[in-house]
User: Which sequence fits this backbone?
C-alpha cells in the first residue's frame, strides 16, 4: 500500500480500466485513456460465489464474443470486505457510452442473449448497484495503460468534505510530489464519481502484478515520509484531516473468466486471459455396489 492509498485509503472497486499511461502514451494499440469509467457491483448471495457465479457470467462473455463486440470490460473479485464482483467498462466519452448502448439494442441476437444471461445471473445476486466516474489526470500519477500482466487491484475511495475541494487538491499535490521524488515507480489512476454516489467521491486505483508489490509498498511509505520531512508530514496531516470526511481501502483480484478482455491483452498473455469455460462441479464418486449388503 502506498502513502496515497493510506491517506486516501479507499474502497476497492478492483477494477482497472483506470490505469493509463503518461500523457505521451495516451494510446497503446486499443489501450487509450478511459475518460468515462462505468462500474457495476454485484453482491452475490452466500454460497453462490465462485463456480456458480463464474458459470452465469460466462454467458455474457460468450454472447459478446460471438457478436465480436468492440466494447470490453474487466471483472475483479473481492479479496476483502463483503463478497462482490466489480465489472469495469471504459468509454472515450458519454456519447460513446450512449452509442454503444443503442447499438446493443439494435443487435437483436446479442440483446436477447444478454437478457437471458441477466435473468439467470440475477438468481445468484443479493443486490446490484452502478456508478459512473470520470478520469482526473491531474490527480493521477503515471497510471498504466497495459494491464495484461496485472493480477490484483487496490481500490481506495475518498469522500471529501463539502466546500473543501481546494484542500483535497492540495493533499493530492503534496502526495504526488513526495512520491515523484522518493518512489519513481509509484503509479495510480484517479477518477471522480459523477453519478450513482455521494458528491465529492474520488476513486484511486492501483494495479499490481503480484501481492509482493504491496509488501514493498510499506517500505515505500518510509521513503515517502523521509522525502516529505517532519514539517511536510505535519502539514499533510493537517490538510488531509480538514478535507477528507471518510475513506476506505479494499483489495481485488482480476478474474479472466468473468472478463470480456481486450484482444491486445489476450495476445499479450493468452495463458491467463484467453476465455476458458468455468470449471464444473465435481461429480460424486460411483457407489461401490459390492459394499452393499
Assistant:
Amino acid at each position: 500500500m502506498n502513502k496515497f492509498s493510506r491517506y486516501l485509503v479507499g474502497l476497492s472497486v478492483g477494477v482497472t480500466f483506470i490505469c493509463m499511461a503518461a500523457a505521451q502514451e495516451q494510446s497503446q494499440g486499443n489501450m487509450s485513456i478511459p475518460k468515462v469509467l462505468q462500474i457495476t457491483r454485484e453482491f452475490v448471495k452466500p454460497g453462490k460465489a465462485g463456480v456458480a457465479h463464474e458459470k452465469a457470467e460466462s454467458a455474457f462473455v460468450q454472447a459478446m464474443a460471438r457478436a465480436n463486440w468492440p466494447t470490453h470490460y474487466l471483472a475483479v473479485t473481492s479479496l476483502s470486505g463483503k463478497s462482490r464482483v466489480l465489472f469495469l467498462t471504459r468509454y472515450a466519452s458519454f456519447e460513446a457510452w450512449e452509442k454503444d448502448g443503442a447499438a446493443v439494442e439494435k443487435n437483436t441476437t446479442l440483446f436477447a442473449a444478454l437478457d437471458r444471461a441477466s435473468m439467470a445471473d440475477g438468481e445468484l445476486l443479493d443486490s446490484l448497484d452502478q456508478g459512473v466516474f470520470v478520469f482526473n489526470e491531474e490527480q493521477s500519477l503515471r497510471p498504466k495503460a497495459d494491464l495484461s500482466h496485472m493480477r490484483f487491484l487496490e481500490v481506495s475511495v475518498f469522500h471529501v468534505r463539502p466546500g473543501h475541494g481546494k484542500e483535497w487538491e492540495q493533499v493530492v499535490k503534496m502526495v504526488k510530489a513526495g512520491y515523484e521524488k522518493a518512489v519513481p515507480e509509484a503509479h495510480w489512476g484517479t477518477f471522480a464519481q459523477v453519478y450513482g454516489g455521494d458528491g465529492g467521491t474520488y476513486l484511486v486505483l492501483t494495479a499490481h502484478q503480484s501481492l509482493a508489490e504491496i509488501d514493498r509498498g510499506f517500505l515505500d511509505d518510509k521513503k515517502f515520509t523521509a522525502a516529505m520531512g517532519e514539517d511536510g508530514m505535519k502539514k499533510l496531516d493537517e490538510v488531509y484531516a480538514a478535507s477528507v470526511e471518510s475513506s476506505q481501502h479494499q483489495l481485488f483480484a482480476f478474474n479472466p473468466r468473468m472478463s470480456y478482455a481486450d484482444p491486445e491483452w489476450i495476445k499479450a498473455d493468452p495463458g491467463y486471459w484467453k476465455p476458458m469455460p468455468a470449471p464444473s462441479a465435481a461429480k460424486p464418486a460411483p457407489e461401490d455396489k459390492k459394499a452393499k449388503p
